[in-house]
Amino acid sequence: MPYAIILAPEAAEDLDDLEANLRAEVRQGMETHLRHEPGKTSRSRIKRLRKLSQPQYRLRIGDVRVFYDVSEKNVEVLAIVLKSEVSKWLAKHGKSEPK
C-alpha cells in the first residue's frame, strides 16, 4: 500500500525555494523512495536518525536532505535542507528522545 506524502508548510516553502532543476530532482526522489518503503534504510540514501524522536528519518538526494517522520499510512516531510545547513537545522528543530 502506498504511503501518502504530506509536506509540512515549512517543507513546502523549502521546496519552493530550491532552483527548478533541483526541485524536480527532490520531487522525483521523494516519490521514488518515500511512496512505498519510507522506513527501508540503506547505506547512503535513507538513514534512521538516532537519539532523535523527530525527525525520524533522513533521505539524501544529491546535496539536499529531506527530513521526515513515518506513521501508519503517511510520510510527513518536515524539512528539505541543503547539506551545508543540516547541522544548524537539526540543532534548532531536532527533538531528542526522552531518556
How would you describe this structure in keywords?
YaeB-like fold, 3 helices, two-stranded antiparallel sheet, alpha+beta, globular
Total individual domains: 1
Number of helices: 3
Average pLDDT taken over every residue: 89
In CATH's first tier, which class applies? Alpha Beta
Using the coordinates shown, work out and report the CATH topology.
YaeB-like fold
Low-confidence blocks of residues: none
Order of strands in the sheet with most strands: 1-6-5-4-2
Strand content: 25-35%
**Termini separation (Å)?**
34 Å
Q: Give the biggest beta sheet.
A: 5 strands, mixed
Q: Mind explaining what this structure looks like?
A:
Helices cover 32% and strands 33% of the residues. It has 99 residues and is α+β, with helices and mostly antiparallel strands. The strands form two sheets. Strands 1-6-5-4-2 form a five-stranded mixed sheet. Strands 3-7 form a two-stranded antiparallel sheet. It is globular and about 40 Å long. The chain starts with a strand and ends with a strand. The mean pLDDT is 89.
Question: What would you say about this model in short?
Answer:
It is built from three helices and seven strands, in the order E-H-H-E-E-E-E-E-H-E. The chain has 99 residues and is α+β, with helices and mostly antiparallel strands.
How are the SSEs ordered, and which strands pair?
Blueprint: E1 4-7, H1 9-17, H2 20-34, E2 46-48, E3 52-54, E4 57-61, E5 64-70, E6 74-82, H3 86-93, E7 95-96
Parallel strand pairs: 1-6
Antiparallel strand pairs: 2-4, 3-7, 4-5, 5-6
